[in-house]
Every structure is written in structure tokens, then in C-alpha cells.
Amino acid sequence: MYDPLTNKTPYGATPAGEKTEFVFPLPSSMRAEKVFVIARKGEKQLRAELPFSHFDGDEHVFAGGIVMDEPGVWKYRFEATSPSGTLYFGRASGGRAICGEWLPEWQMTVTKKAYKTPDWAKSGVVYQIFADRFARAGKAKFCKKHGRLHESWDELPDIAREGEDYRADDFFGGNAAGIREKLPYLRSLGVTAIYLTPVFLSSSNHRYDTADYLKIDDLFGGEEEFRRLVADAKKAGISVILDGVFNHTGADSVYFNKFGNFPGVGAYGGRQSPYYDWYTFFDFPDDYHCWWGSTVVPTVNKSAEGWRELVLGRNGVIDKWTKAGVRGWRLDVVDELPTDFTEALCAAIRGSGKDSLVIGEVWEDASDKVSYGTWRPYFMGDELDGVMNYPFRRAIFDLVMRGDRGAFRDEVALIAEHYPKESLDASLTLLGSHDTVRALTALSGVSAPATKEERRGYRLPRDLEELAALRLKAAAILQYTLPGIPCVYYGDEAGMQGFEDPLNRATYPWGRERDDLLAHYKALGVMRARNKEALTGRLRFREDDELAVFDRVSEDGRHTLTVRYNPCLHTLEREIDAEDAFTGEWVDSVRIPPLSAYVSARRV
């Protein structure tokens, strides 16, 4: 039966005005006479016949195409005429066709135009660094008006004090010089790009409450050290991606200046401020629009002329830092940004750096994302290159924690169907981030202790840690071989643990890493570099009664990578006649232990 991953061209989304070709095989027993594809968008409906093409064993194969001429999200289905009446076909779990009535339709994302995303990023590995917590070189000079610098790198992050709100004002002094010292380590992992959480001036350790977009935080090393990091990383073959927080600023900032810590009058100071119209006040000065009710991050009016000039203008935020060598931007809470601003922002990024990568923070299927009642056209060709692919994280966890092969295939197939291939290949495949429970902790399946204080000091018992490590090794193989760019959250490769923010933001445990995990991630980096052609090719699922199996096939069909995951509690053996993708040795058959994955490669 029809499978859009193998029976539709182009793979994934299609540009408006170009023909989408379908191959629709049906069992001969259905006695189909004619087959039609019906596509609809709103009130508009198109219908095209797929003529009979040929016989293939016991199947009649119909093939043809249809042109969807308007960009946007379309739905499509198939109908066939037969002596017994009309047969209706819709999308079953996993994306394949099923015959019945009132079935789900397939989605077709139709872009405004064909577009390319930066090739330099696609076959590499991204490493996310929480700037304050990865590495520190030299003695940290604490220059904040509030908060404290931890005495020891190995202390745990602070949590909310008794009866107080969490302030995020404890620092460890991770800096640009520290990252520069660790560039050889990152290269040993096969890292080709660093994604840095915010590094601009801020009063918090996470720096998502920006105080000045044109200044690098002194605790991170200042502008000169940052430029040295970018330059040295480039020499090492590593690009730098910055976190762009353009939905809100800090209340403690040049622009809002709620606490009077900056010269000049901020918006909080009154209408005479040049920044006053950047914000929305309901009852001046203390009742203002802020992100999710958090008064420390007032929301910006994205239509304010001065704001746009700061972010988008000549020598503004994007222009300055892209010219400094930054090669990509991750747009924080991009679904909070209005479409016209997102388009202008992406245009400014590409205008300053032609091969810049633009990643959006989207937690769901980004192709049909609706935010504040408005569909977001992220993949029409004018906005994002890719997104943080959290749906793949859910799919991987469904497989390695619950053995749910069906859920894994369905979630992965859905995203692969809906995204333009260029954007799928440019999205970040992640197992953890600064916004999630640490991968090792999550994969243990442990129930979180009741209080934050208990969670703060919690470490997995040995048996659960070993189970989680086994699952993490398999999950990382899937992460590195599914479509997209694997994005490793700093320290996951070392076995770091931790529940929710800020417990997932501890310091990297230099000298205390889990050697088995570290060796595994280094081997994954080598394997990925060795199989670039297949890993930027098509995705194809295989049938197996027990294993989850998928192929990555190069565009010329000459290089195939096959991934097999064993969800069972007993070892499974398969004939493969292929290379071991890690060692390069030819293998006739392989025994796959429980909860483990195996990758083979064939070249013709």
C-alpha cells in the first residue's frame, strides 16, 4: 500500500505550482478500475486521476500527479472505483494507506518556492553549551550587583530560597576562554557547531533577560574574548550559533531600566524615554505586558521602529554579531514573534551572512503550528531553516523506554512527511536541552522526588543509572542517524544527571565523566562523518516482526545506512551482509543485545 516516504515525489513538502507525483499500489483483489487523488485547502479542492501504470506481482500500480498551486497546508486522500463501489483511502498509523471510511487524511506542506538551507550544517554535530556552566579559564571576576559566584566549580546550582521566588543569580563563571580551551575536546566528539545559550549582558545566569544586546557579558569574557572564541572555533572547523531572544528584554536592562542600574531613562521611567513605545503598559509603571506573567522579562512591541532598528538595522544586533563571525541564530520562543517580524528577522540574518543557519524554538510539528490563533508559515521559504525537533525526541524516548515501535514510526514519519526535506535536514535532533530533564535522568524512568531540595541532590541508584546509560547509547544512535542535525546538550555525553531547571544546568564534570558514554559519543561522531551522503538522503522504514528498522539512503542510491533497534529483552540475530558502520568491517550476521541498536552500511 501507499507510503508517502517511498511512493511520493518530492520527499516531504513540495513547492507551489510544481507537480507532486504519486505511486499508488493496490492489491489485485480490490479490482480497482480508476484511482484519484483529492487535495484540499480550505474551500478549494483539486482532483486528479492516477492512470494505471503496471503490474507488480499481485498488485496493480497506479501513478500520476497533481499540482497544488497555493502555498500553505493542504490535505489529501485517495479514492478508487471498483465493481463493488468507491473505495476510500486515508492515513493509517505510520503514514501508510488504509482502506475504509472517515479516515484521517495526509498532510502536504506546499511552500512558496523551492529553497535551500545551509549545507555546511547538515552532516555535522551541534553541541549546546549553557554558557555559565561548561568551562572556565582563569579566575572569574564577579562584577554583578546581585547574586554570588560559587566558590567551587563542583557545587550544585542554587534553587529558590525558603519563601522566595527563584532568582537565577548564582554563577559559576563559565566563559569564552574556557570554551576555547576545550575546542580540542569538542573536535574529538566530531562537533562542527556550538550553539551557545545567551551571552549578552544580563543580570541572570541564563541570560534570557537581556540587558544590552550589543555587549557580551563581562563574566563570559567580554567582546574581545568572544571574538577570539569565534575565530579560534572557525580555525578548528567549528561554527558558532547564538541564541537570539527577541520576544522580550530584561526588566533590568538599558531599555526598560526598572531598577535604575543603567544610565539614561528606560521605559519604566516614563514617556520621555526613547524606549517607552517598545513596551505595553496597562497601568504605568508596574502593570505591563510580560512573557507568561514574569515581570523580569517585559515583552517587546515588535512593531516599534526603534526596536526594529536595534535588532535589524545596520550595525544592529544581527549585523554586528554576524559580521563578528557568528554563523547561525537560534530564535527563542519564535512562536511568540509576529510573522512579519520573523520574516524581517530571518531576512536580516541572511542579509548579513549568506550561509547563516536560522533555527526556531518550536516544540510541536512546526509545519502546521498555530500560535495565538494564527498559523505560522515557518517553512514557506521566507523564515526558518529548521527547528528544535522535539517530536523526534518524543519518538526516540517512546522506542527506547517503552519499546513502542508503532509510536516511533508514526511520529518520525509524520514529521518527515510534513517538513520540506531541506528544513528536516537542517533541524536539530535532540535528546535534551536547557529546558528538559537531563537525558540520563529521563531515560531512567525514575519518579521525581517530591521536593525541589530532594531533587537537587538526587543521584540515580546504580541499577537505574546502568539501565539509563544503556538506553542513552541506543537513543544517541537514533539521534545521530535520523534526519536532521544531532544536537548534544553539554554533559549528556559525560553522563550528567538532573531534573528540571535549574537542576539540568549544573557544571560540566571535568575529570568525572562516564568513560563508556564518552567513548560512545566519540565513535558516533566518527560514524556520522564517515556516512555523510546517506545521512543527508531519504528515510525509509523496513518491516520486521521484532526490530525497529529504518534506512538512510543517499540521493544517488549508492550508499545505504541501516539502523536496527532491539526493543526486546532477549538477543536477536539477523543476516545483514554489510559493513559495521562504526568499524568498517564486513559482517555477515549480527547479534543485537536487548535494548541496543546496531548500524550497518552498504555502498555500491
TrEMBL record:
Record-level GO BP terms: carbohydrate metabolic process
Pfam annotation, one family: Alpha-amylase
UniProt KW keywords: Glycosidase, Hydrolase
Single GO MF annotation: hydrolase activity, acting on glycosyl bonds
Residues covered by the Glycosyl hydrolase family 13 catalytic domain: 128-530
Alphabetical list of InterPro entries matching this protein: GH, GH13_cat_dom, O16G_dom_2
Protein name in the entry: Glycoside hydrolase family 13 protein
Organism listed in the record: Candidatus Limadaptatus stercoripullorum
